[in-house]
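Project standup — Tuesday

K.O.: blocked on the structure for the chain from last sprint. Re-posting the sequence here as requested.
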Amino acid sequence: MKTATALVGLAIILAVLGAGLSYSGYNGSQVMTVTSSQPMTATSTVTVASTSSELVLMTTSSMNWILQDEVIAIPAGQTQVYCGYTDSRHVYLETGQVHVSYSTESEYHHVDFWMMNEDDYTRWSNLRHCSDILSYQSNSKPFVAKLGKSGYEFTTGIGSAGTYYFAFMNENNYPITVTLNVDAGLQTSEITITKATTYFSTQESPYVTEKVTSSVVPAGFGLLFYAGIGLIAVAVIVLAISRMKNAAPRTAQPPTSAPVVAQASAVVSPGPAASAGKFCVNCGAPLPARATFCNKCGSKQ
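H.V.: unblocked you, prediction finished:
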């Protein structure tokens, strides 16, 4: 009885331990990693629009002519009355720069030249003596005087818009032809050009592919669990056998005070009851009908 109970307890412990370990292995075996080795490439297109402004300076190749190739024929100047003969041209000039040049038909033909505003020209033209005419000076600007030259070229600034005179005097005894040019110089213009430029940037970025190998352990109850189940079965069988032995009926023993002689006589002359079995003459233990010695106390029958 005690052995069967111990076996049952040990079997239960083994079964519970085996089941727990098997459950842990079952849960761990369910963790699986699925890996895809298919290569992939991501392409992204980024559009960037930018606007830039550029300042372009353009210079024209033509002059802003005021007088172009103006021909002035000056008669012979020296006479008995006059020291020279004069001639002039006048134009209206805006503020800014002005470029003036003149030349005679020969480098040996010299003339006198003045550039004056309207007030100076009026005073200059009213002079009556050659020395006063040739020595005339003014503080107004611009005022330019060039005496006895076949040609001259200069650039000056016009501070205030108005009428300006270009005067010549021929002191020679022969006529002279003068060519006069007046211009406002080269014209420059500022042009702002706005350019809109769109840039397209394409990038290809391949994904990194990794291969991962995983092994799966099949889930089961394990050897400990099955061993525990087997021990439980053995313990149940042993317990059943033990209970069957304890439950078997026993033959009533005669009282120990029975006379030995009567028992001996019973052996000599067995009755109907002795045919089914007999008892030891010493200790009263049940014996087989043909037993010579007692199995319990060893007494001879």
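K.O.: great, moving the ticket to review. The chain has five helices and ten strands. The longest strand covers residues 41-74.
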